[in-house]
Known about the structure:
The complex is a heterodimer.
Chain A (H helix, E strand, L loop, with lengths): L2 E5 L2 E4 L5 E8 L5 E7 L6 E8 L2 E4 L6 E6 L2 E6 L8 E8 L7 E3 L3 E5 L1
Parallel strand pairs in A: 2-11
Antiparallel strand pairs in A: 1-3, 3-8, 4-5, 4-9, 5-6, 7-8, 9-10, 9-11
Chain B lengths: L2 E4 L4 E4 L4 E3 L1 E4 L8 E6 L5 E7 L5 E4 L2 E4 L9 E3 L8 E11 L2 E6 L3 E6 L1
Parallel strand pairs in B: 2-12
Antiparallel strand pairs in B: 1-4, 3-9, 5-6, 5-10, 7-8, 8-9, 10-11, 10-12
Amino acid sequence: AQTIHQWPVAEIKAVGSPLSLGCTIKGKSSPNLYWYWQATGGTLQQLFYSITVGQVESVVQLNLSASRPKDDQFILSTEKLLLSHSGFYLCAWSAQGKDSDYTFGSGTRLLVI
Amino acid sequence: GDSVTQTEGPVTVSESESLIINCTYSATSIAYPNLFWYVRYPGEGLQLLLKVITAGQKGSSRGFEATYNKETTSFHLQKASVQESDSAVYYCALASITGNTGKLIFGLGTTLQVQP
Lengths: 113, 116
């Protein structure tokens, strides 16, 4: 069975500090990977997607970056956090194919102060 | 672009009452998008509740049902008798097409509070 693990569960960070969020998928080779974000009071929106190792596409510009260093790993990061980065971050994966399901991790709650 | 609109919350109902959470969608990237309901229980991540990929069909799970209505572009979530354990945030979503992959377009989420 496939599992998706996200870390950390929660973070409180200072404005201007760096951030790194991680996601690992086990039991599925070559998944499509995604980062979603929800600001307080906002909707979940896709930030990045990756269909293969080393390739990441940005969907929304938020002064964040993402990388896929391994087939099963997806990293979200920034060197300087903004207050507006606060929110809930979700990693997800899907198989190839338009009718595939999306499976989400348990999420990371980020508060920037 | 594609969008999803759903009932604004919070919605408060008493245990054993019926529930309907409205969801309508607008899809421009794909004629008949796959439609989903996701649920987020307190302290947990997002879980797929049900999914329907064919217009006119109904999906069901855990006592919840939703019918894909292409005429009204709706996918309302219903349950005949809610339980306290159904308290959660419910998200309606459609699968949009972006280049050679897809993305889920979510509604704002509806917080459901079931009172004992």
